[in-house]
Amino acid sequence: MAAKASVANLPHLDTLRQHLWQSRAITVVYPASMDSTLKSLSTALHPFKVRMISAEQAQPEDLKGSLFLIGTPENNPWICNTPLRPAIHFQPPSILLNSQIIPEDAVAFLSFYPNPHAPYFPLFLATANDERQLREALARRMREGFSAFGWGGWQYEVYQGPYRIRCGKYHPTDWTLLAERQFQAASTVVAPPSAACFEYHWHGDSTNRSDFRSFVMACDQQAAAVLAFCDTIWHEASIPVHGFPDMEAKGLALNNTSPLQFSIQANRIDAIANSVYSTSWLGPQNQFLLRRILGAPRFPLLEAGLALTFNPSWQKHGLSYWKDRLAHTGLLPGLADLEAFWADEYQSPFLRQLAAAAFCDFLLRHWGKAAFLENYANWAPDVAALLSMEPQWQSYLSENAIMPEPREAGTVPYLKGFNFAHEGYAIYNGYGSKLAAGMLQEQFSLGANAVAIVPYSYMRSPNAPQPLSIMNRAGTENDESVIRDLVYARRLGLQTVLKPQIWMGGGHWPGDVRMDNKADWEAFFRHYTRWIVHYALMAELYNADVFCVGVEFAQATLIEPDAWREVIRTVRAVYSGRLTYAANWGPEFEELAFWDELDLIGLNCYYPLSEAKQPSEAELSERFEQVLQKARAVSNTFGRPLILTEIGFTSTATPWQQPHLDGEGEAYLGSAQLRCYHIVTQALARSTDWCRGVLWWKYPSYPTLGGEGHTGFTPNDKPTEEQLPELFGRLPE
What we know:
Helix 7 (about 285-295) crosses helix 8 (about 300-310). Strands 2-1-3-8-7-9-10-11 form an eight-stranded mixed beta sheet. Strands 17-18-20-22-23-24-25-26 form an eight-stranded parallel barrel, surrounded by five helices. A five-stranded mixed beta sheet has the order 12-13-14-16-15. It folds into three domains: about 15-185; about 190-400, Neutral Protease, domain 2 (Orthogonal Bundle), CATH 1.10.390; about 415-730, TIM Barrel, CATH 3.20.20.80. The protein starts with 12 loop residues before the first helix and ends with a helix. By secondary structure, the protein is an alpha/beta fold. It contains 23 helices and 26 strands. The chain is globular, with a radius of gyration of 28 Å. This is GTA TIM-barrel-like domain-containing protein. InterPro entries: GH, GH113. Pfam families: GH113.
């Protein structure tokens, strides 16, 4: 047995990660009885080289290095013989995690814990009292890949079935529990029976119980509509529906933050029941009932589409409104392309759902209800059959078309605030979390009246077109997290700017995007339009005050201005608020040709203010005045007000020299950042007629990012933050 390492000898968490990535190898010690379950583990642990050794054959020397122990205390003796106190220990028949007994039917995981057999390497552990429960939990995790085994952030977790009931982290140096990073699921309350179809479980306290009651009522009303449509009575067992009070609670429990998810195979529906999402996202749960009553159709989108037609408030306004609202846009497909459109994961989920639901509504009108139900199970149309209905489909789409009406223009309010950065990817610390809500409240308390929400997608290459993903994994800037923060910001009274951006790896940025030929440019804009329209629809749905159609495509905008005009016109067809584009400082901003298509000129302002290490106030002020003169000239030329969609300075000794650099590796100097904020604010306070706002880069989604020693852009917990109320107060209203 290995001797337990003392606290003084335990490595830093970063050391464990470093050794794992340097060796790129993991040894898995598991019971032979689980061999069939773990066949795909090597794939799940890619890119690491995996060495599988049965517990019966393992020797002490096999346990050195990065180690993954799998099994129960009975079928893998190495688990009990590896000293992991205080994290985990065994008092047969109980398993104790952090001195708390886990439920008998639960599964416990440890991730990135010092390996007592080789303390500078990480240990991973998956254990339970019941081998069947362990098999099921591992199967779920292997489907999710290596991030599910610890790279996602949690160092200990306890699951009961699919639900994570406890999770947390340890201190990275002394390995004590971090109290502020421990989460425990609320107890579950079974709601009194309401309708026969569903059995409701509430995973929250009494605070949000009224939201849950509204959710239950809506589900029951839709279920009743399904039964009436099918002219049947429900005779089967009730389907479990689990409601959660917010995105964070559901995400921590299920590693899925979608407002509504379901599994017909697992016989389970999980949903967020609160006023942010209300009943707008309901409808898909009706697929359960349709499957049980009508069976699975050969044309799958019939089930998905028909289910949505029973929610009269789908996406707030219902199917008919959105069909009519988007009829003139060309965003809904022809029938020959309908199935591929519905199955395309890169299409807006909103448009995919709308297309399927509208098609079912069309068929009900075209065939009548009796023929629809008769054809439902076995209809599998070929292209010719679909094309034969195309004229009627187009007539259906356009019969009550609604042209968009711009919102009342009025005076552009002066925006003063931040780009709000999704800095945390562990669900509890990014967009949609309680911490993020607190940081939005903090910005408001500091005097901000506006905030930019910044979801990202990514491109692998600046010279090759590719579809742009809409983020959907828990912990990313997915739709539900962006929506929560848009809604919460508006409830605070903040003006909201939705500003989607593209992230590029390999040292590239959107300004590098440049295609080699016409076909590639056309493909790029096809992908980009599809992606940006999704967020324009979100901005329309959730009343964002300003929508940004692009950020820093410094070459693409100058080379292909007409293509950008088409992007803007497509966006304007679905979004009725103010539009801007965030141009990079320099040639793009100064030479961009399509400002006349927009309502606001946007400048990401990182012009250098001095090359000197210790410039005078006069020099910095004069240089920034010169920047504003350039900006005002563009504003005057196009007759549009301007906002600084980004401006920022790092907390380093000379942030005025190259303001766009992130400060990594530099020495910290918070007072230099504050100095730049004063220079900018002083100048902007005098520029009230043509400049209508400033959105600083940037403010984080959780409070511990920043502070003394942090050299990045955020003013959080630095000298600048203390003076933000005064600085914002000096700007126009």
